[in-house]
Amino acid sequence: MSDAALPSRDYRALTPYLFIAPAVLVMAAGLVYPVIDAIYLSFFNWKIGTPFSTADNVGLSNYARMFTDPDVWESIWVTFRFGFWTISLEMFLGVSLALLLEKPIRGASIFRTIFILPLMVSPVVVGLIWRYLFDARVGWINYYLGIWFGIEPQVWLGDAELAFFAIVFTDIWQWTPFIFIIVIAGLQALPSEVLEASRIDGANWWQQIFLVKLPMISSILLIALLMRLIDVFRALEVMFIMTGGGPGRATELLSLHIYNRAFDAQLLGYASAIAVLLIVIVFVLSLAILVIGNPMKDKADV
Question: What is the CATH architecture of 70-301?
Answer without folding.
Answer: Orthogonal Bundle (1.10)
